[in-house]
Amino acid sequence: MADQTLNLPSLFLVLVILILSIRYFFFGGPGTSTHTAARDRNTANPEHIEQIAQMFPQLSRRDIQWDLQRNGGSVQATTERVLSGRGLERPPPSFQPLPPPASSSSNTPSSPAPHKSSHPDLLTRYKLHHRLSQPDVTRSGEEEGEKPKPPQWSQNRDERQALLQKRREDMVLAARRKLEEKERREKAGK
């Protein structure tokens, strides 16, 4: 016992014990409950449930919540499972999901009018009703066999914005005309 020096492994062991004891006393002592931590970890965030329910309205909220609880609340994992075609597993009968979040619209009877006013159709949103009655210039050029010349990309920001806005309007109007043509063909076929 004449040689009482600390070697490196014993110094390392003392340091680890000191760090663990400090951590236990200051951060994880007997005041914290592992049961509540496990319960909090297993509950699904209602915002995540709502997010997935909006992406995939065909899924039930109960199935979504069960999958989120099983994978630790990962929206990405649940979304990947649905998109891969595997679907979500059915929760056991004993599983009790959280009630859906209460919103101010649930107190009043829902009517389709507020839904339409908050999400107007594209013609109203982009104010294209005046262009709907005008003949389609791009369609007449295509019917003659001419290929429309795409405009060049401009260095001016305002010109680019006007060009992109015109393209957007043309796409909305073309989609509208295609839908009207399809509906006319369906009515003529019946």
Characterization of this structure:
By secondary structure, the protein is an all-alpha fold. Helix content is 62%, strand content 0%. The longest helix has 33 residues. About 11% of the residues have low confidence.
Could you give a quick summary of the protein structure above?
By secondary structure, the chain is mainly α.
Instruction: Return the average pLDDT rounded to an integer.
Output: 75
Tertiary shape: elongated
Class by SSE composition: mainly alpha
> How are helices and strands ordered from N to C?
HHHHHHHHHHH
- How many angstroms does the end-to-end distance come to? 106 Å
Largest sheet: none
Number of strands: 0
From the alpha-carbon coordinates, what is the Rg to the nearest angstrom?
Answer: 31 Å
- Helix content range: 55-70%
Low-confidence spans: 34-39, 104-117
Features:
0% strand, mainly alpha, elongated, 190 residues, single chain
Provide the fold topology.
Blueprint: H1 8-27, H2 34-42, H3 46-55, H4 61-70, H5 75-83, H6 104-107, H7 112-118, H8 122-125, H9 129-132, H10 137-143, H11 157-189
Helix pairs in contact: 3-4
